[in-house]
Amino acid sequence: MSVSRTARRTPSPTPSTGVRPILLEAAGLTLSGLLAEPADGPPRATVVAVHGGGMRAGYFDGQADADLSLLTLGARLGFTVLALDRPGYGHSAQQVPGGMTLDEQAAVLSAAFDAFAGRYTVGRGFLLLAHSYGGKLALATVARTPGLLALDASGVGHRYAIEPAERQRLRRHLEWERNWGPLGLYPPGTFRAAESLVAPIPVREGAEVPLWPQRFEELAPRIGIPLRLTFAEHEGWWRHAEPDLAELAARLSKAPVLRVEHQPAAGHNISLGRAARSYHLRALAFFEECLQAAADTDPEHRAGSG
Q1: For residue 170, what are the contacts with CB-CB under 8 A and spacing of at least 6?
Q2: How confident is the model at residue 3, as a pLDDT?
Q3: Distance CA 20, CA 146 (A)
Q4: CA dist., res. 92 & res. 81, Å (int)
Q5: What is the mean pLDDT of residues 281-305?
Q6: Which of 6, 128, 185, 234 is most exposed, with minimal Cβ within 10 Å?
Q7: Number of other residues whose CB lies within 10 A of the CB of residue 244
Q8: How far apart (Å, rounded) are the C-alpha atoms in residues 293 and 28?
């Protein structure tokens, strides 16, 4: 989510130590992003991190505090972490200035998995970690792409707390509050650092925002991998009271594992707040469990374990 319009021209910050920029060709687009790999051997698996609307891949490499970065944490724990600028953001904004629809982005992201696997060791396979609009994209991608191992998404639900038409009438400071929540949730320097992460929401992407509740109804029965959804304590864009979450869970009937949780002391932009490390550790722990469960059901793994 954006901070200000004037900040969009601010150059990108230097990535954290061990994180490097990457360009990846996928479905005719050149996607930019950030990459962190384990320093002491091949990865156990590859986490693909997908940012929300009006942000960029650097959302997952928070610069206000060294503990915020998902990329550095994941690499230290043995994962490759690839944070991509979605189609219409970063480098690809030059190729598709109007952006892409959700289905078009899902096709590109699916192709990006193959492109990345052709150049890098991915370990056991791909895990998805997504935020906000990126969560919508991740769900759409999972529904069409076999073989993905698990999905962890924050800041995305099935019913808006405020309808898109009402959002257009929000004053800027009220929209800001829904994006971030209380100022004390973030370490000093967060908002200055975040100025370099914001980007215009592409027109075609923005036009589809009102369609999400119906799209979710279509996608939910097709999600057949382990799924974890997290709502920040101060989430302002989605309904997340207990009845809402029960309704949400009922629609995701095909997921073999489903967890719907709240993250204390966090706003919508969880990965930039003080709670980022806690959230990232929980997500990576969920991925660890999914990898172990997959190994336990793998006949070759069982045969070699005794």
Answers
A1: 162, 178
A2: 39
A3: 29
A4: 20
A5: 80
A6: 6
A7: 17
A8: 36
Q: Note the pLDDT of residue 297.
A: 76
**What is the separation of C-alpha 30 from the centre of its chain, rounded to a whole number of angstroms?**
19
Edge-to-edge, what's the strand order for the sheet holding 227-234?
A: 19-26, 29-36, 80-84, 46-50, 126-131, 150-154, 227-234, 258-267
Mean pLDDT of 299-306: 48
Over residues 163-175, mean pLDDT: 63
- Amino acid in the structure at residue 173: H
Determine the Cα–Cα distance for residues 32 and 88; give it in Å rounded to an integer.
10
Question: pLDDT tens, 290-300?
Answer: 999 988 776 55
Beta-strand ranges (E) seen in 100-178 are: 126-131, 150-154
- What does the pLDDT read at residue 175? 73
Collapse the DSSP code of 158 into the 3-class scheme (helix H, G, I; strand E, B; otherwise coil) and give the result. coil
DSSP assignment letter at 229: E
pLDDT for position 179: 84
pTM above 0.85, yes or no: yes
Q: What's the topology of domain 6-294? A: Rossmann fold (3.40.50)
Average pLDDT over residues 7-22: 74
How far is residue 112's CA from residue 49's CA, in Å, rounded to a whole number? 12
- Domain boundaries along the sequence of the chain: 6-294
- Residue 164, pLDDT > 80, answer no
Whole-number Å distance between alpha carbons of 49 and 82? 6
Distances (CA, A) of 57 to 6, 70, 81, 114, 246: 19, 11, 11, 19, 31
Q: E strand or H helix at 265, and its extent?
A: strand 258-267
CA distances from 249 to 28, 135, 137, 223 (A): 36, 15, 18, 12
Place of tokens 């999400």: 212
Q: Read off the tokens for 226.
A: 């382990």
158-165 average pLDDT score: 84
How does the average pLDDT of the chain come out, rounded?
A: 91
Q: At which residue do the structure tokens 């529904």 appear?
A: 143
